[in-house]
Write a structure and sequence with these properties.
Length: about 210
Amino acid sequence: MKLKDWLIPQDKVFFELLDEHINLVVKASALLHHSLQKGAFSPKTVRLIENLESQADNIITDVFDKLNQTFITPVDHEDLGNLIISADDLIDLVQASARRINIYKLDGQNLKIKQFTQIINAMIQESQKLVGKIRQMSQKEMRSHARKIHRLENQADNLLLDCLEQLMREKNIKSLIQKKEVFEILETLTDKIEEFCNLTQKVVMKNL
């Protein structure tokens, strides 16, 4: 089934579920970023993100339930499954970041973490826009968002190098290990966002 056939009414549910899921990812990312920027990060922030992640898990269950019940889907079953799993990796890593920041009490005191969450928040917003272009079959606009995501991911790579250089001057070994773990989770998240972007484009191209 080609991409133009995705607009058949009975298949809209898969778009709607993907939209709902990416909206939750956006909310979780924004919550983490803005709470850190405003110095308002707290255990409550983590609980709110965990709640969003739980809602995202429910959507995953809905998607696979519907895939098992539906013979004809907008795109290949495997592609749909891979796409929603890739999106779910994003909110899982936002949650993992928030939990580590909370456990290690790094909230508000590390400029590099704030810089990372700023990049991540921008990348996830672009990913939401990318998903929004799927139904329009606008490869040109999708490529525009994809280029922005790739540029931001390159910034994250450079930021990680800056973070590691900074850690070389860290005298407290415990603090060094904790910060390195958080930096690497955040950088992994940027990689996963880029992977989601690439997968989304691949699925669209495959089904045109």
